[in-house]
Design goal:
alpha/beta, four-stranded parallel β-sheet, binds arginine
Length: 563
């Protein structure tokens, strides 16, 4: 039952073709509180074309309007306020949710189109930063949202596993490294060597030459160089996978930068054939002045490839392999300029999906006021943040619900959920200071709050036992129930909006809104009273539980039944 549609149609008829349905729909507003109606049509902007005062227009429209299906339509100044037929609307909404279950809100807009999502993409031999966490959870949620909208996402972890830094790392390891140490604590040790390299090469520039040689060897397939690289990569990946397991994030492919090594020659060839490569101080660049961008450096003077060279090969590969409907790169805003260059080069090359390349940027994150950077040594290890969060969640649960059966499991769901939700409720591009204690609160706009609301709904249903829930629309005299029902009805539009904007915060904010309205309802009504409306009230609770759980799932957050 689509009330926006009903309102639009009624108005279109009354306006006699003076506005199109889309124009009308765009003007419709939602009154802040339900006592002012459920949808409002302002008439100010029509005054000019209709040569009448807005109040008069509202009056005239009200007289002509077919009000079937509405409880009433009121004229308040320049507004037409529509009141829905609450009983019918409630019943229809709840029936839709309960029949569809978890698939409520699903649509087929994407037509199964492939959408590679470049996400997470940490660098080998470096700790995964909070930035990579953001990319991981944002990318993961966008993938769920795309699936819900009928697309076929491909989650690709574009590991930073190639580049001149591996020459430095091998050099450092050969000079100061120790196999046992690396085996015990791979990433930390490798970082230590790398940091030492940068300290020492200030006075010993010859180190850089050695590093360059090692990288060249690596590129040429030298067995020792390759063996070390492979070992560093594997050990790092194991640590990364621990974090992914904790977050419950899975990837379809791990095609890191190195995967494209044998595909770089073709890129250079295409660029040459299209006369796009020019020499500049011995290096090969693509001029991008027509895009108002600095030239893209494709090959260094020694012939070494760069980050962008590998990204061009990546885009070409994805283009051919997936014929993508969209091409997403979930990468921090600091690389915005870079992605403009990448897109420009691809356009020059004539790669078909270049126009559908979207950099999906996000802001910086600080944890408890502290910045994260590998160089400064002030690294807040992601794994540590997760661990801490799970511990704190466990303490909270111990206090609130000491008899809970699977406490450890739930602590993990809540601790991890708090971090994921705490990130995703912010608009992507905002910078955020992440205060762990705040994100873990069971009250306020947090993951645990939404999870707790879902658990509360489940607990009501458990207590009710085998009552046959029925979406009869006879209990909505209660204004909180009515607000909850309208919020439930918004979900399909939320799913679409989150997809159009590639913005998980749309879903997170919605989940908070639904949890809040539901909790108000819960506080004001005795849901479990044994009367004729009990099955109808339970239908509402069941629908809320379903939609809260599904919203959390779209964010990559678990919804325990008890907590
Ligand atoms: N490894 C890079 C970093 O940590 C991110 C890679 C992003 N993806 C890409 N296709 N460039 O900054």
């Amino acid at each position: 039952m689509d009330y926006k549609q009903t309102v639009t149609t009624a108005l279109a008829t009354a306006l006699d073709g003076q506005l199109t349905a889309d124009e009308i729909a765009a003007k419709l507003e939602r009154p802040k509180t339900s006592d002012k109606g459920d949808m409002a049509f302002p008439t100010f902007t029509l005054a000019k074309t209709l040569h009448r005062a807005p109040q008069q227009i509202a009056q005239d429209l009200a007289e002509k309007l077919d009000t079937t299906g509405f409880e009433k339509v009121e004229v308040v100044g320049p507004y037409l306020n529509f009141f829905f037929d609450k009983g019918a609307y409630s019943e229809a909404t709840l029936n839709t949710v309960l029949t569809a279950g978890a698939s409520y809100g699903t649509n087929e807009d994407g037509n199964g189109g492939n959408v590679p999502i470049d996400m997470s993409s940490p660098n080998i031999a470096k700790p995964m930063s909070m930035g990579h966490l953001r990319s991981t959870v944002i990318g993961n949620s966008i993938a769920e949202i795309l699936t819900k909208n009928g697309y076929h996402p491909i989650k690709d972890n574009h590991l930073g596993d190639w580049g001149t830094q591996f020459g430095k790392l091998i050099t450092a390891y050969k000079l100061w490294g120790n196999e046992e140490d690396v085996k015990k604590d791979p990433i930390n040790k490798l970082v230590e060597y790398y940091v030492r390299f940068h300290k020492e090469d200030v006075d010993k520039p010859e180190l850089d030459d050695i590093a360059r040689e090692w990288f060249k060897k690596l590129e040429d397939g030298d067995p020792e160089a390759h063996h070390l690289w492979e070992w560093f990569r594997k050990a790092s990946l194991q640590e990364f996978n621990d974090v992914y397991d904790e977050l419950g994030v899975k990837f379809d492919t791990y095609n890191g930068e190195a995967f494209y090594n044998d595909k770089l020659a073709e890129v250079v060839q295409i660029l040459k054939d299209k006369h796009l490569l020019v020499e500049s101080q011995g290096a090969q660049v693509v001029d991008l002045s027509k895009y108002d961008l600095n030239p893209a450096l494709i090959l260094k003077s020694d012939g070494a490839s760069l980050y962008i060279t590998r990204d061009i090969a990546t885009a070409l590969y994805r283009d051919r392999t997936y014929h993508p409907a969209k091409n997403l790169y979930v990468v921090g805003s600091e690389q915005t300029y870079y992605f403009k260059q990448l897109k420009a080069v691809l356009k020059e090359m004539g790669v078909p999906s270049a126009d559908d390349l979207h950099h999906v940027p996000f802001g910086l994150i600080t944890v408890d006021g502290k910045k994260l950077s590998t160089r400064s040594g002030r690294i807040i290890l992601l794994a540590k943040v997760l661990e801490e969060s799970i511990k704190l969640a466990g303490e909270e649960i111990n206090e609130k619900n000491p008899d809970l059966a699977n406490k450890e499991e739930v602590a993990k769901q809540v601790g991890v959920g708090a971090i994921v939700f705490g990130d995703l409720k912010n608009e992507r591009t905002n910078n955020i200071d992440f205060v762990l204690a705040d994100q873990l609160k069971f009250e306020g706009e947090t993951g645990p709050y939404v999870q707790y609301s879902h658990a509360r709904a489940e607990s009501i249903l458990r207590k009710a036992g085998n009552v046959d829930v029925q979406a009869a629309g006879n209990h909505v005299a209660d204004p909180e129930a009515w607000d909850t029902i309208k919020t439930l009805a918004d979900f399909p539009a939320i799913v679409k909006m989150a997809c159009d904007e590639l913005e998980p915060s749309v879903v997170a904010k919605y989940a908070i809104r639904l949890a809040k309205t539901f909790n108000k309802y819960y506080a004001h009504s005795k849901i479990l009273t044994e009367d004729a409306d009990l099955p109808a009230r339970l239908a509402l609770v069941k629908a809320v539980s379903t939609v809260l759980k599904e919203s959390l799932r779209l964010l990559g957050v678990q919804a325990p039944d008890e907590m």
